[in-house]
Amino acid sequence: MASVEIAAEHERILREIESTDTNCIGPTLRSVYDGQEHGVFMGKLDGRIRNHDRDIEKMCNHHFQGFVDSITELLKVRGEAQKLKSQVTETNQRLQDDGKGLLTCMDELRLCRLQQRNIATSIDKFTHCLPVLEMYNKLQEQMTQKRYYPALRTLEQLEQTCLPRAGQYRFCSIMSDNIPRLRTLIRDTAMSQLKDFLESIRKHSDKIGETAMKQAQVQRSLDSAVSLQQRAAVGRRLRKEAGLGVGTDIDGQGSSPMSEQDSGVLDVEDEEDEDEVPGAQELVDFSPVYRCLHIYTVLGSREQFENYYRNQRRKQARLVLQPHSNMHETLEGYRRYFNQIVGFFVVEDHILHTTQGLVNRAYVEELWELALSKTIAALRTHSSYCTDPDLVLDLKNLIVLLADTLQGFGFPVSQLFDMMFEMREQYGEILLKKWNLSFRQVLDQDNFSPIPVATEEEYRQFTSQFPFQDPELDKVLTRGLLPFSEFVPQVYSQLKEFVYACLKYYEDLHLSSTEIDDVIRKSTNLLLTRTLSSCLQYAMKKKNVGLAELVQVIINTTQLEASCVYLEEFISNITNVPPDTSNATKLYGTSTFKDARHAAEEEIYTNLNAKIDQFLQLADYDWTAAQGGGAPSDYLSDLIAFLCSTFSVFTHLPVSISHTHTFSGKVAQTACMSACKHLSTSLLQLLLETDVRQVSMGALQQFNTDVKECERFARAGPVPGFQGDTLLLAFSDLRQLLDLFTQWDWSSYLADYGRPTCKYLRVNPHTALTLLEKMKDTSRKNNMFAQFRKNERDKQKLIDTVVKQLRNLITAHQT
After folding, report:
1. Cys-Cys crosslink for 258: which of 83, 262, 505, 680, Cβ 3.0 to 4.6 Å?
2. Does the keyword section mention Transport (predicted)?
3. Distance CA 30, CA 37 (A)
4. pLDDT-derived band of residue 791, with 50, 70 and 90 as boundaries?
5. Do 142 and 158 form a contact (C-beta atoms < 8 A)?
6. Count of CB atoms within 10 A of residue 239's CB?
7. CB of 629 within 8 A of CB of 705?
8. Which helix (H) or strand (E) holds 576?
9. Distance (Å, rounded) from C-alpha 39 to C-alpha 56?
10. Containing H/E element for 758?
11. From CA 296, how far away is CA 291, in angstroms rounded?
12. How far is CA 205 from CA 153, 202, 234, 340, 345, in A?
């Protein structure tokens, strides 16, 4: 059983050796050597080899004849092959000899085709590169010629069109790398030119404004009543004449600007005005701002440029609106200030109308509001220093011209006119101060004497200055005097000059005739009620003004009062407003001159009373005298002589003056009555003053003698016109008091006190008591032994009784 298995195993190993690659036979043979039947296996292996050799021999024997036949045929073919080889060799040699020329031609053809291809390629490349080089050369020329906007356009075309077509070349790379630097250079150069432009318009704004204001002045003189629609056309014309035409607009895509040599002045509507001389475009070239705007638009930085331009112009506006510290000293300072403002806004108006969006209406209006506020504030400050009315008037005319010029460009100027209305009060105050000096100078130079006239020609000369008409011309010439002094015609002329000065200010302020008439009348009223009135008061209060001067002041004011009607007619004539217009302001001249006349009258009364007081200060009574003298006191005699000489002035006046109702009928009588009353009151106060502690009967008799002298003066009628003893009534209080004491009529006084028929109706019980107590003290002190005399004791008892009764009377009336 074991041998069968070994035999089967050996068989398997043999089959495996036959069918297995020799490289993998190692494990199979190892299994043989590992076993114990190595010899057996070798025997079987030899037997298997012998079997295969027999099979090979059988197969060779079977195919040997065919092999022999094949060898025989192969030997036959070898001969033919040798022949064929020699033929092929000969043919190849002939072919090789014949193909050498063809190969040479083919090589030449190949080289030619290669050259053609290279040439075509080069031409194509040059076709794309030449525009790049031409464009770059054009760019360099434009940069050299400083034509930066076309250069920027060329640069854009070079970058976006030419370079992408040219391909990747070194010079293209260099150009591409150089493009940002060129853009920066163009932008910086344009900005530098813009800065130069801003500096240029800053320097030339004065000249631009002067040109615009001159053109506005010419236009206003040609047609002062231009309509609102015409003003708009005038504004366009002013812009051209001021060098501010209309430039090319800029669209949102950055359209092409004008040529580099164009100044930015182009207005199709104004092309027909070729004969007109251009103005400010000769001073300022606006092309840099257009160029810079186009360049920044193309570069996509338009907003940055707009902000920069507006900020720079705002800064310039603040500089322009800053006035010089000494601007108020001369009109030229104001003119330069206004020219700069006008020039600034004329430029801004031009930029507004020649660009699209660089500045807008809101921006310009914002600048204008700033300018208005600062200009008005500066004018208010600097004009307040002005004291010359001519300078204020010239300033007003300059402001009107400023307003008309800017209004022609469409700027609202109502605030400027409002400011001029405010300035009229200052102008009025300056005029009042000037006329105050004029009036005072006239008053200081006046001699307060009637004007002498010898001929009718002289009379006409004075009446041409002052509306004085005397129907009795022959009497005036015979008399040789006009009633008033030179003060009257000079003051009347000054009033007319004041009206003219006021009228000059209100010209061109767009006021109606009624408004002008109203403000002139109000200003004239201020002149009359404040300035002229104070000057008259000043003239009357001077120390060297005497009675004659005060009398002449009254006459002068009377004549000026009568002239107020003619002054109103004069104002109505120059304002073309009838004086009877409803709501028309009336002149206060009549009341002013009446007040001045009344003040002069009061001054006469005051001076007389002051002079009387000076004489009374010389009174030296001996209040304890035992017996009075028979003659009046010296001071009183001098006082009466002074009053007589004083009131004689009234009686020696010219007829035409002395017959004046206001003066001779009232002033003289009132002055005389006032003097007598003051004298009577002062004498009574002198008698009752506290320093006088004792009054004797002798002193009272002397006092009575002086009062009688006063009554004699009053009775003599120092001033005509008093009826009866009217002037004596001024001394009635004093007379009744002295009669009561000198006649010692106390029984009648006490019995009839309070009755209308009382003899001593004007004697006040307080006054009587005061004087009686002074007499009682005198009796006690001067009569040391009066108690030993019966009659003296009785008199003293009587005085005590009267004193007691007077006190009871006073107490009863007080209750």
Report:
1. 262
2. yes
3. 12
4. low
5. no
6. 27
7. yes
8. none
9. 26
10. none
11. 9
12. 33, 5, 20, 5, 9
Q: Report the distance separating Cα 603 and Cα 674, nearest Å.
A: 12
In 625-764, which ranges are continuous DSSP H helix?
634-651, 655-658, 661-662, 668-688, 697-715, 732-743, 746-752
- The tens digit of pLDDT for each residue in 168-224 reads 777 777 777 777 787 777 778 878 888 888 888 888 788 888 888 888 888 777 755
Of 236, 312, 301, 305, which Cα lies nearest the Cα of 272?
A: 236
CB 450 within 8 A of CB 481: yes
Contacts of range 682-690, beta carbons closer than 8 Å, 24 or more positions apart: 682/612, 682/613, 682/616, 683/616, 683/707, 683/710, 683/734, 684/733, 684/734, 684/737, 684/767, 686/616, 686/619, 686/621, 687/771, 688/767, 688/770, 688/771
Contact by Cβ (8 Å): 159, 179? yes
- Using CA atoms, how far apart are residues 198 and 351, in angstroms rounded to an integer? 12
Identify the H or E element spanning 347: helix 331-354
Positive or negative: CA dihedral 115, 120, 124, 129:
positive
Buried b (16+ CB within 10 A) or exposed e, 744-760: eebeebbeebeeeeeeb
Q: What is the DSSP letter of 727?
A: G
Q: What share of the chain is helix, strand, coil (3-state, %, to 5)?
A: 75, 0, 25
621 token code pair: 């009574």
Task: Grade residue 115 by pLDDT with cuts at 50, 70 and 90.
Answer: very high
Q: State the DSSP H helix or E strand holding residue 221, giving kind and residue range, or none if neither.
A: helix 170-222
Q: Please spell the DSSP secondary structure of 493-538, one letter per residue.
A: HHHHHHHHHHHHHHTTS---HHHHHHHHHHHHHHIIIIIIHHHHHH
The residue type found at 331 is L
- Count of CB atoms within 10 A of residue 339's CB? 24
Q: In DSSP terms, which residues pair with 452 in a beta bridge?
A: 481
- In which element (H, E) is residue 102 found? helix 38-144
401 with 217: CB under 8 angstroms? yes
- Structure tokens, 112: 């030619």
Task: Give the model confidence (pLDDT) of 125-157 as tens digits.
Answer: 777 777 777 777 877 787 777 777 787 777 777
Q: What are phi and psi of 661, to 5 degrees?
A: -65, -45
Cα distances (angstroms) measured from residue 360 to each of 310, 352, 356, 364, 367: 10, 6, 8, 6, 11
Sign of CA dihedral 796, 797, 798, 799: positive
Q: What is the C-alpha separation between 311 and 513, in angstroms, rounded?
A: 46
- Tokens at 413, concatenated: 């100027």
Residue 163: strand, helix, or coil: helix
Position 228 scores a pLDDT of 39
CA atoms within 13 A on the CB side of 69: 4
